[in-house]
Amino acid sequence: MPDPSNPTARVMDVLKFLAAHPTETFTLAEIARHVGLSNGSAHRLLTTMAAGQFLSRNEKHRTYSLGIALVAIGQAAIAKHQGIEIARRELARLAVDLRAQCSANCVAEGDIVVLVKEGSAQSHLGLTRVGERRPLVPPVGLCHIAWGSNALIEDYLGKAEPFMAAPLRDHLRAALPLIRERGYAICANGPGAAASRQALVMASDQVRDAAYWARVHALVGELSADEIQLIDFAAAEGPGISYIAAPVFSPAATVAFQLVATGFPTDMNVREIEACARRLCATAAIVTAEMHGRVPAV
């Protein structure tokens, strides 16, 4: 985690906040509240960033948004991380085939960050936008964890102890080897999944304070076993599928990012669910191969 007293960390905080809300504009006071700055400190920081075109300032409304100078930086980053463009190409094809919304995300500073998105969801469940950030707390981001080290897995599972009942923690632990065996993670729709996902994705007027975490923990603690990880696909024929996710591996045989399909029709049968999972895994394999990635030994 960046040192919050470091001015450079504050610049990162501003950019992360605005990137999570790329189409919105915010006043100085709103940005200051979200990144934990005084209005005076925020004024100096935002003025400097706007002067360099890293932020755009609307003089009439006195609001700020992402600046045009970030476009060149973003394009340079894409040129460096070519796997993202490979994933975008393949996700566009996948979204057409599955009639679903398909995205790729990575882990950054303890958050799941959406990098690219293609397609339109067939239901309102599981809608995603680029730049969206969610904390990496159980059971979020299972493909990022399942192929990790024992220390990473234990640290992740340990985070669930304060809010997830022991039987559900046992279910989550048992799901990780199954995810590795299958090659993907999958969970069912349900009232708990919908509510917890909405709580995890912060609205522009929220901060991650004690009230935010209390609500997230309460809602995640109410998830059913199938909403955490689906074992028997027949159980999803009624509520439908919340998401299917598959890992893309780096040349170092670590998870570079995960591909996620969401917003499926709610009337899918077992055969259709299995076909969607196979198609997603095939896409992940293509991206891994074109990135010269290596699948780790299970």
Task: Explain what this protein looks like in three dimensions.
The chain has 298 residues and is α+β, with helices and mostly antiparallel strands. It folds into two domains: 65 residues, Orthogonal Bundle (Arc Repressor Mutant, subunit A); 210 residues, GAF domain (Beta-Lactamase), CATH 3.30.450.40. Helix content is 47%, strand content 17%. Strand 2 and strand 3 form a beta hairpin. It is globular and about 55 Å long. The mean pLDDT is 89.
Shape, please? globular
Query: Class of the largest domain, according to the CATH hierarchy?
Result: Alpha Beta
Beta fraction of the residues?
15-25%
Low-confidence stretches: none
Task: Count the domains.
Answer: 2
The CATH topology of the largest domain: Beta-Lactamase
What's the short story on this structure?
47% of the residues lie in helices and 17% in strands.
Describe the secondary-structure layout.
Layout: H1 7-19, E1 26-27, H2 28-35, H3 39-51, E2 55-58, E3 63-66, H4 69-80, H5 83-98, E4 101-108, E5 111-118, E6 133-135, H6 142-146, H7 150-158, H8 166-182, E7 185-188, H9 191-200, H10 210-220, H11 225-228, E8 241-249, E9 255-262, H12 270-290
Antiparallel strand pairs: 1-3, 2-3, 4-5, 4-9, 5-6, 7-8, 8-9
Helix pairs in contact: 2-3, 5-12, 9-10
